[in-house]
Amino acid sequence: MNAQTPAPVAAAKGIFINNAWRPAASGRTVPVYAPADGKVFAEIAAGTAPDVDAAVKAARAAVEEGAWGRLSATERGRLLVKLGIAIADHAEELALLEARDTGKPMKQARADMVAAARYFEFYGGAADKLHGETIPFLNGYFVATERERFGVTGHIIPWNYPAQMFGRTIGPALAVGNATVIKPAEDACLTPLRIAELAAGVGFPEGAINIVPGLGEEAGAALSAHRDIDFIAFTGSPEVGVLIQTAAARNHIGCTLELGGKSPHVLFGDTDLDVAIPVIVNTVVQNAGQTCSAGSRLLVERGAYEEVVARVAERFSKLRAGTPEMDLDLGPVINAKQKERVEGFFARAQEKGVPVLAQGSIAEGVPEGGFYVTPRIYGPVPRANELATQEVFGPVLSMLPFDDEADAVALANGTDFGLMAGVWSRDGSRAMRVARKVKAGQVYVNAYGAGGGIELPFGGMKKSGHGREKGFEALYEFSTLKTMIIKHD
Ligand code: ADP
């Protein structure tokens, strides 16, 4: 790291409850590894059930009798906007922290801070615009609906975009007036901890934002099972998603689950490849492929397949992985387990004889012990092969040819997932037909994943999960509806 790298002080402070730091009840800590060199550079508190309980109690008090619960929607919105501004003002410090914690290139970390700030700005603006309705009913009645906060919401977030995920999940929850308890990922959670401190600095009342870092099976399990949370939002693996939904069922509370994808680009032969190819390659290389909505399958009309392979291969072969400061196309993956996972896909593809079409490289001079993997394209991937059906969560693109429109749709819908899709064609009617048949929570036409998508409702169909985050829709997810029926003469 260079001389500007901040000491990870925020991380060492522990658990954040009622705008103050405390050590974990267990007295334990969890080491934090820098993916760039594989070395421990910080420690976070190992929160467990008693810490989660203290955080939930603080949140409950904040919303029921504290200053937070008494704020008007406009006042809450103003605080959220102020936090957005504080994030923007601290963007470079936060980006350095994020880059060190996740290994991502600095340009990516900087872009993430712009998006993180935007979440608070967007939901700050939206806080006092969530209206109810009036409903025509029997004569002599006036009926109105009101969106009401749940009370205390739990949030379990992953390590791939810690600051963005934090803004995405607590922005709308706070906007509608909930008090929040967040369990960030043990692999990368330093920016959420720092942003919580910034929130206290701009005037968020005690108990509105509480963070309990720690291991998933300890702090995460305790939060999802806590009897006094009113809703839980989860983003992470399908396996843990089952545990979260089961815990929510035991408490009879709602949950949103965002569980990843195997998102396709459906590319027809008439596509403008000069526009499409750089976008497509970036969607699976960005963040070293560790993006839920990564465009990890490229389905190409058979007549154009060879040309598209040549163009994508040319780009892929120039890709380089390096440290955050080298600021190349991608960084390392998050940890040794993830590197092993990606390389496991490589090994099994080799055993099965799936051809590698091209691969990038790891830059010279990266520290030994970093979790670097070479970006790769495979193709033609057999339709039943795991590279065509399973989420790798690494910089790996699977190419498959299709015969016609019907085949393209069948192939696009041929996995368990349904998070995002891209349709590429100059024929607008065809693009629309296909876009409407693809099962995915978001479908782009001649674009993909533009601008962070803060305003755009996002979430899964099929086994990618349920519920919607982002956009105005998230305000509905994090609130409940009261209908008031008033009889008059
Ligand atoms: P990944 O495999 O990508 O790390 P996980 O689903 O394991 O995804 O992690 C996503 C989030 O879920 C993290 O914050 C992690 O700590 C948390 N988590 C992991 N296991 C559990 C669990 N048993 N209960 C609750 N949360 C968990």
CATH superfamily of the largest domain: Aldehyde Dehydrogenase, Chain A, domain 1
CATH architecture term of the largest domain: 3-Layer(aba) Sandwich
Low-confidence regions: 1-10
Bound small-molecule species = adenosine-5'-diphosphate
CATH class of the largest domain: Alpha Beta
| Helical coverage, percent range | 25-40%
Q: In percent, how much strand structure appears in the residues?
A: 15-25%
Rg over C-alpha atoms, rounded to the nearest angstrom:
23 Å
Q: What's the total count of β strands? A: 21
The main β sheet shows up as: 7 strands, mixed
Distance between the termini: 74 Å
Mean pLDDT: 96
Number of helical regions: 17
CATH topology call of the largest domain: Aldehyde Dehydrogenase, Chain A, domain 1
Could you please describe the fold and organization of this structure?
Helix 4 (73-89) crosses helix 8 (190-202), helix 5 crosses helix 6 (106-126) and helix 6 (106-126) runs parallel beside helix 7. The protein has 489 residues and is of the alpha/beta class. The protein is globular, with a radius of gyration of 23 Å. It folds into two domains: 15-259 and 468-483, Aldehyde Dehydrogenase, Chain A, domain 1; 264-453, Aldehyde Dehydrogenase, Chain A, domain 2. Strand 9, helix 10 and strand 10 form a beta-alpha-beta unit. It is 40% helix and 20% strand. The chain contains 17 helices and 21 strands. Bound molecules: adenosine-5'-diphosphate (ADP). The site of adenosine-5'-diphosphate (ADP) has 15 residues, from helix 9 and helix 10.
